[in-house]
Predict the structure.
Amino acid sequence: MPTVIIGSALDIVERCGVPRFLFVDFPLGNPCGKPWDKAMQQRIVRQGIGLFETIDAPQNTVFCSEEWGDDDWRGRYMEVNDDNRDELARKGEELRLRRANRQRRPE
Amino acid sequence: MNTNPNPAEPVPYLRRSREYYEAQGFEHAYRYAHHEVAPFTELPKPLKECTVGLVTTASTYPRASLEPRKIDSGTTTPPPARLYADDLSWDKQATHTNDLNTFCPIEHLQALSAGGVIGALAPRFHCAATEYSQRSTLEKDAPELHRRLVEDQADIALLIPL
């Protein structure tokens, strides 16, 4: 079945390798546009749907030209620094404990 | 591929997440899916005649952070009042997911259908189960999603990971 992906993690999707990809350079969570900005969302979805007709070979990425507005989020997401290093190590321990006790997915 | 119109560099998520998990003391970095080649299927008919299936990674019900995820579906008419994504990794500091149409654009696809750009939006949307196991995804979840899309008579699918 022909597919198009609209997504915001360029390196992850390109590493996977997909047929058609519209890359929207936004914080993860809103690949189809900023919350409540219906006009922008409409443009992005229209562009994404359009790739079904315009892309004729796999592993093609099209860069969407819409802008989020500020770039503060780029450096912050999943950042490791001296302020959170100890906290992350502690959280990791906690997570391993919880995973060891997690409910397994039924086969 | 066309060129990036945005002067800022895309966020290097592969490197960021590797460093993040290392800082959490995990010995093995998450191995992201990797394929040298991707399949490609031509449109079976003109876009304006195609029924579009919609797949999201959000959920129809709230999931706890380590709760096993499962494939789920909901109707596009009426659309859900909301979907749930708190257990997924996305930028909770920069944004929110209270506006469904930012990641499950039912309203916009219905408008494209009304405008004759696509034939129709399929009667259901589907929630993919983003499991850590690539084997589960390939052998169980993807075939099940495909089965549901075919059942909905979808010709093509729009996949939207958060």
The mean pLDDT of chain A is 92.
